[in-house]
Structure formats: structure tokens, C-alpha cells
Amino acid sequence: MSRAETTQDAFKKLIQTLHEVSSASGPFPVSLISYVFFPISTILRRNPSSAIPDQILEKILVILGILCDTWWWDMDTQTWEQIFMLCSAILGGIEAKDRGKNRDDETQYAAVQCLWTLVHPRDPSEDSAGPFNSALRFSTKYAAFQSHAQTPTFIPIMGQTVNSLLASAESRHTPLQKVSLQMLQIVVKDYLPDGFVPSVLPGIISCMSKIALGTGLSKGWANGDTVAAALTVMKEAIIRAIGDDICAMEGAVRRVTDLEGLAESESNSPKPTTTSTSPYSTARTPVWLHGTSSQLHIALNSLSPLLSHPTPSALLALVSFSHTILLATTLTVPQSQPLLLSFLLSLSSSDYDTVAEQSRSFLLELLSPSSTSCHTFLPVLLQISKDNLAALPRLLPSHSDSKVEHAAKVVQAVCMLANGLQAIASGVSILLGPNGGIERWGWSLLSTLELDSPTSPISMASTAQLMLENDSEGQQWVSFPLVTLHHLTSQSAQAAVEGMFQSLGKAAGDDCLFAVDWFLGISERSRGSRAVSALWCACRLLEGVAGVSLNSPVTPHVAARRNKLEKFARGLVRSISEFWDEDTVDPVESTTRETTHDADSMLVEHVKGLTTVRTPGGLEQSLSFRTAHTNASEIQPILHTVFRLQALAISSAILQSRFTPLLLNTVYPILHSLVAKATYLSTTALATLQYIAHATSYASPANLLLSNFDYALDAVSRRLSRRWLDADAATVLLILVRLVGQEVVQKAGDVVEECFDRLDEFHGYEVLVDGLVAVLAEVVAVVGQETHKPTEPNPSLFTSPTDPQRFDSFFPWFSGRNNSHATDDEETDFGPVPQKAWGSGAGDEEGETAAGQAADPVAEPPPTPTQLLTKQIISRSLFFLTHGSATIRARILILLSSSVPVLPDSALLQSIHHAWPFILNRLSDPESFVVASAATLIESLAIHVGDFMYRRIWDDIWPRFRTMLNKLDAADATSALARRGPAVVGTESAYTNSHRLYKAILKTMTAAVDGVQPHDPASWEVILAFRRMLHNQAHIELQVCARELYAALGNKNEDAVWLALTATEGKIDKWPFPYEPKWDIEENVGLILGRFCGSTTTGNGES
Questions:
Q1: Closest CA to 512 of 558, 543, 548
Q2: Are the C-beta atoms of residues 797 and 947 closer than 8 Å to each other?
Q3: Region annotation Disordered: residue ranges (predicted)?
């Protein structure tokens, strides 16, 4: 082992021993310190510094630090100076002239740690001499070292030490950096003389700024504790170099505390006073102050990125730094007050609660009436609000989300202080009031605050309508869709701008209604982008004034009446309702769009990232033009309507239960938007309806509509007149009926009368007739949920007896066919007959009266009001069976089908009998879906009134179906969509017209066989006609429907079914007529016969 290694091991053991003795016995006695210090000092004197290795020198410095921690109380000034100089020289690398390189980080750390032991303040309880006079000893000792450090001979050493500490503070070695910053803080605060601090201020500010900002670090941000330490050093240097106290004392500024001082400050300029003659001192003069404060402001401005630091410790340090500098440099650095206040304002809305609370408490302290500087900071704060508000038009087009978010949060933070400071509330009220100059900053803001087109698609059906129908009770809360600002991409920046307007409205209160009215006036002039932006601003301000938010459901509560706000809300609702159907266009904006989006011009866009658009050659330019034109001409009116709906929702939150009378004007606009094809608009309408229902204390939107059904029906009626015709009014009425549900039965009479009045008036308008017929169908569907007729047919009429039953009745009759029939005549029940001679006595009259009053068991009960209503709908709808529109013809047929289960036979059969020729004509309609609808009606009639349909099915319907089957067979033979193969039936797709007709005919005939008394000749024709549908190459749906038909036929006449199907397979010898070898029906025949026969057919045709 070498000598150096032996010495290093000895030092390690000594350090360990010192720690053990200190923890066991407490502070070292002076004798022990001297005993240990002597050999250490001998090593340092006998060996040149360059000859001592870093590891050994590190151990020596650690030992000196352990000793000085206790020795400090009894150390003389000379020893303190020598150890200080040694550590400073080692730290700066100047302990020897031949030293060619700096010591390693560990050695430098030991040197700085030893320096920290020499200079840091002590707790008087640490004095080994006991608690008696320990505080006095500490203050005396600490003052002695401070005075010695400020002597002219020691100032150069302090300067060199500060320079070395600044260099080591930039080290990547974290422990060294941390202890260097701690050392700098205590040296600048307590040991540097007042005249010397201005000399080192530029270097300290420059170095600490780089450390705080993490300049040169690969990870981007400096550690939070490091930032806090750097800001603390900077704060101490600024206070000591350019603080109000020291500058006022030396005459650089004049502090005014009374009127006499104010008069003197106006007449005489401050005179600098000389406080030190040291060659190292810098005089604080007004000229020096002007230059230094300007440079300091630049340095402070460079700290702005720290607002985005991810650690709360760094943000808390920035809050403390800003607060302290504002208080300490009110007179000397006035140009930095807006910057430092903006730091506090921005951090008051931080995501960290501790940071936000600390910043807000400091702001309230600075601006409280008890503060001596509140008169200085209050105008600055209001000017910050104006400047940031005026800067938004310049920042928005720059696409700088961070700057926009910062400006918006600053304004928002100022407004949040209005709750505790009336002066700020008054200032914001002036800004948004008649004298606030909204005409200047409002127009510039609207010119850049452009709203983007919503990303939601435009669909043929209203998505919100489907959502509301599935959740009419309003159990699932629907949020208002988010709005996207054109020039902003981050959601946080957009939320900040929105919160800024809400905070302005909340701070200004009712005085903000002037600004809201101004924005609403701009929005009423057009439907362009500027009007949309103005309406959005008005909604956000009104949210703040009312203290509500559309992002959360409103909770009805008892609050103080605000008559001015309620009056404004009522006027706003009426204004929106009056201008709802107007569609004016700003000619200035229209001209601008026409000239800007010319087809031959180039579209210039600000795009972030990569967007790949693949289009056929030559279409790129037209695609850009189409997109721009769509955004300008179509999306902006949609957004305008969206924000008008939001204004209605906010007004309902203001008025709450007092909003109910205004539903007369607002129900229709909301429902009209609910059925819009634009998903963005319909979702907003749904959210508005649900929000208003909550605000007016209704349990659900359906309850609201039911309670105000007359209002909605009146609104629809007014929009279905010749003076005011709205094509969507019928759709609005449809959704209204669908939402109210079964409760609409009470109001259905008015709805039906309204529909038929409009049908008579506008029967030539296909769109209106289609919509009104849909409303009638919905009424019938809702009524049908209340009552249904029994659908079981009468078994005594249609069920054929089985073979054993036939023979059991035949044999008794055959054996007694020649006997007398007197017994049968006596036993025959002819019903009620007179038991005595006819007469006219009183008893007979009483009997007749009693018989007349008795209920007739055969007669049907009188129709209910619901059935009378449905009968009225059917009888008045029959005229539209011959309408020129195929869609309307199909709708009427479906309407008739839905009424069959509802109406009693006495009311239904009369209407069907009257319309029967028209129904038969629909089976020859050129449109296949009309024919299918007619077949559906016949199917429903066969199920519910089979006895009535007996002759009509076999004499009228089946011949037409037979003709249709032949035509379909011929058409499939030449169709390109037909299935390929021998004797194949139908088409490949289940969506062709022929397939749908086949399916409708099969289902109709199945219902007819089940519900109508069979007719043997026609039934045999049916059995033979549909055999091809059992071919295993037919479509699977047709095979299933055919099996159901033959099963129904087999239930009535299984012999005929068995005979026809077995002969078709060729299993009956000597009967070639039904045989069809081209059809493979064996599998389906087995399934059919197995449903009503005990066993399937055998190979020779026997069962």
C-alpha cells in the first residue's frame, strides 16, 4: 500500500471517529479541536498544495468543516480568515501558482461546505458554553466576522470567492451546485458591503438567470429546488443593490411620505450622498439607477418561461421572488411592476393549489387598502388588463397558443381579485361600461376571434333526435358541444379565452350588460363570421354576469332578485325569437367572401403538421375552393344558430321558473334545431332543451313539452300557414308527439285537426304531406300502445276436423239416416222464444223494457275516444291513396296497417270497404315498395279480420298475386341480378325489388291462410304456385317464408300439401303432372311434412 493510500485511510478513520465522538459527547472541547487541528495544519504548511492529491485534500477539508462547526464560537478572526482564504483558493483553483487544473467536484464541494460552516448563522442553543448569554455571543461573533469580511483588505477575497461560487453554481454536480447557491445567498445577504453589491449585481443576475432557466441542460428544465435557490440569490442581490431603502438613503430616489415631501420632490431633484470612499464601491446615482433598472428589467423579462415550469417548488419560488421585489423596488424599478404583477396574476390560476393560493394571497396583500403601495399597484393592474385585452387581436393571428393563454389567464386573474377588492370591480365595470371604449378594442377583437367549423358530420337523420327518443326522461346529461377557435389548437388556450370573458362578466356584474348588448347588436346585423364571434362573446359575458356555466347543469335555488339582469334576459329571449327565421347576410362580408374565395385564386392557410390529401389529378384547387366556400356560406349560419340556443339556455338559468311564460316563443326554435341534419346543431338543441328543463324545475324534457304542448302546437300552426310556411314544421310536430308519448292522447285531437287542415291546404306539396302523414302515423302508433284487439282467429270457423273426428260423426249419422228427425227437432236450440201469447199488457211492457235495458252480449262495446280519433285519422287519410307521390301512398298504406290492431271491427271494416278499390290498385303500383306496403296492409287485415277478408283474399288478392308471380318469374329470367343455375328462383341480393315483393307476397299469403277460411280450389293453386320457393338454390329468406306458408296450409289441409309436394318430388307413380325434376325441394319438404305428420314420406310415396 502506498503512502498516499495509507494517509487517506487514516483520514477516513479520523472522520469516522470525529462523527462518533460528536454524536456521543456533543460539541468538541477547544483542546480537542486544537489537538486535531495541529497535524492538519502541519500537513498543509509542509506540503505544497499541488502535491496534495484531491482525495486527501477533500478529507482535510471535511475534517476542517467538522472542527469549525464547533470551533466557530471560539475562533479568532485571523484563524477564520486563513481557513476562509484556503477554501476560497481551493474552490477557485488558485491555491498554487503551478496548479494547472481545477480540483474535482468532490474537493470543491468539501471546500464550499467548509466555507458554509464558517459563514452561516448559528442557533444560539448550539453554543457549547451554555445558554447563558449565548444570543449575545452569537450576535457579537457574527458581527465581528461580517465587519472583517467588509474591510478593504478582505473585499478582493470576497470578490474572488463570489466569482468562484458563481462558477461552481453552474456545475452539473448537484450537491456542489446546491451548496454553492446556499453559500452565495448568505454571502450576498450578510457579508458583502453595500457599496460593493452593485459591482457584482450584473454577474449574479446573469449567472442566476441561466441557472434558473436551465440554459445548457439537455433535459430542458432545471430542478425545482435549484430554481428556487437561484431566485433567492437573485432576490437578495436585487434588494441589496437596487432596493428602495438603500437607494433612498444614498439619494438615488426620493421617498415621499407626506405632502411636504411631495412638494419638495416636485421642486428639487434627489441629490446623491456619498456613503463610502472604498475603491471597490459603486455610487448609487440617478443615472446609475436608470441604466441598472433598465438592464434589470430585461433580465427579469427573461424569466417569463418559468411560468411554465412543471414543479410547484419553482413556481412558489417565482411567486415569492415577484412579491418581494415588488415590495422592495417600488420606487427604483417601476417599469418592472407590470411584469412582476403579471407573474403573480398568471400563477394565481396555476393548476397547483398551493401555488395559486400563495400567489392570490400576495396579490391581495399588495392591493389591500392597508398597504402603502396599493395606490401604485392598482392602476398598474387595471392597465395590465387593458393591455392584455388589447393584445389579443395581435396574438390570435400569430397562432401562439402559449401567449394567448398567458394573456387570457392574466385578465382572468385580475377579475378574480374583484371579489375581495371593490376597486378592481369598479375598474372592470368601467372597462365594459359605456365609457370603457369597447368600440375600439371590441371591433379589433371580433376581426380576429374567428370560430372554426365544427368537426361533427351532417347526417340525414338527427343524432340528437335519436338520443332524445331513447332517453326522453333525461337521465343522461348531454353537454354542450365544444367550440373551436380558428387560430388556436390547444384546448387549454381555448378554455382560457372562454374563462376570460366569463370572469370579465362576473367581475363587472350588471354593468357588463352594456358590453353584452353591444355584442348582441353586432350579431343581429348578419350571419357571418364576425356576427358569430360577437354572439359567442355575448354568451360568455352573460354567463359570467349570471354566475352560471353551460358546462354543468343548473341547480334551481333561491337567490336575490336582479331586476336589471332579468329584464335584460326577457328582452334577449324575445329578440332571439323574433329574429329566428330571418336569414339576412352582411353584404360587406358577402362581397369579401366572393372576392376572396374566387375559384381561380390561391387558398392560403396556416397549417401545423402534415396533412395528406389524395385526390384525382386537377381537383386539388377545386377541393380547396369548395372547403372554403362551405365554411363561409354554410357553417357560419349554423354556428350563429348554435350560440342563439346557448343564449336561450343562459337566459333560462337567469329566470329559472320565471322563464316558463317565455316557452311560448322558445319551444319551436329549440325543436326546429333539434331535427336539424347538422349534428353539431342538433346536439346543441338537445343540450339546450335539457338545460332549460332543469332550470325551470321540470323532471325531464318530455315533461316540459307535455306541460307546454299547446305552446308548441300553436307555434307549429303558425309556421304551417300561407303567410309563414316552414317545411320542417311537420318534422317538429313529429318529434313533439314522439317525445310526449302516450300522454299525447289527451292532446291528439288538436294535432289531428291541425294535420288534416294543413293536408287539405298543402296537399300538392310532397314534403309537407309526407311529414304530416308521418305525424299521423306516429299518433296512431302511440295510441296503439294503449289498446289492442285480440288477434286469435275463431277456431270454430277455420279449424278443420281431423280424420278420426270425421269418422266418429259419420258412422252414427249413417246408421240413423232413415230414422225420424222429431227428436232432433225437439232438442234443437233455436235461441230465446216467446213463452206465452203476444199481448199488450203492463207485464208485457215491463218485460220489453227490461229486455231492452239488458246488455246485448253479441253487440260490440261503444268505441273509446281513442278509437274514434283513429277512425277519424283513417277516414280522412284514404283520399291520399291516389296521391302522386309514391312515398305518400306507401305512408298511407302503412298508416292503415298500424290502425288495424287499434280500431274495432265496426269502425275499421267500413273504412276498408270504402277504400278497397284503391288498395287493390296499389297492388299494381309501379313502385315495388308501395306494393310491399299494400301487401303488409292485407297481411294485417287477414290476421285481425279474417272472416271479413274471405272473399276478398281468394277473389281479389290471390289472382293479382298469381299474375305478379308470373311477371316476376319472367323478369328474373332477364335480370342481371338473378341467381345463376338451373331453375333458380329470385336474385342473389336480399335488397332487390323482386326479392322484397316475393317476401311480401309469401308473408301475406301465410297470414291469409292462417286467418281466413280456406277455399279449396284457390288453396290448391297456392300450393302449386309457391313450390319453386322451396328449391334449395333459392334465397334462404324465401325458403324460410315458403316453409311457413306450407306449414300454415298443412294445418288446414295436410293431405293436399302432402300430395302436391310428394308428387313434385316424383314419388307418386303414374302421376306426372306435378312432377318437377328441376327443383331440389327434398330437404324443405321433409321439414314441412315433419311439422304436421307423424313421419316423413317413404321412398314409394306412402306416409
A1: 543
A2: yes
A3: 261-281, 821-865
pLDDT single digits (tens) 47-84: 877 778 888 888 999 999 888 888 888 888 999 999 99
Which residues have C-beta within 8 Å of that of residue 178, sequence separation ≥ 6?
Answer: 225, 226, 229
- Give the lowest-confidence range in 151-165, 216-230, 890-904: 890-904
Separation CA 1016–CA 233 (nearest Å):
111
- CA 782 distance to own-chain centroid: 34
How far apart, in whole angstroms, are the C-alpha atoms of residue 319 and residue 326? 11
The whole-angstrom separation of Cα 957 and Cα 449 is 68
Report pLDDT digits (tens) over 1049-1101.
888 888 888 888 888 887 777 666 777 777 888 888 888 888 765 444 443 34
Grid coordinates of 342: 403579471
More confident residue, 933 or 735: 933
Query: Percentage of residues in the chain with pLDDT exceeding 90?
Result: 22
Residue type at 751 in one-letter notation: V
836 band by pLDDT with thresholds 50, 70 and 90: low
**Residues pairing with 678 in the sheet:** 458
* CA–CA distance, 961 with 1040 (Å, rounded to integer): 19
The residues pairing with 725 across neighbouring beta strands, listed in sequence order, are 720
DSSP symbol at 527: S
**Other CB atoms within 10 Å distance of the CB of residue 586:** 16
What pLDDT does residue 591 have? 35
User: Which residue, 816, 782, 813, 1000, is CA-closest to 902?
Assistant: 782
Angle (CA) 825 830 832, round 5°: 140
Contact 183, 165 (CB under 8 A): yes
| 946's grid cell | 279474417
What does the buried/exposed string (b/e) look like for 868-877 if buried means 16 or more CB atoms within 10 Å of the residue's CB? ebbbbbbebb
Cβ–Cβ under 8 Å, residues 415 and 507: yes
Categorise residue 437: left if φ over 0, alpha if ψ from -120 to 50, beta otherwise: left
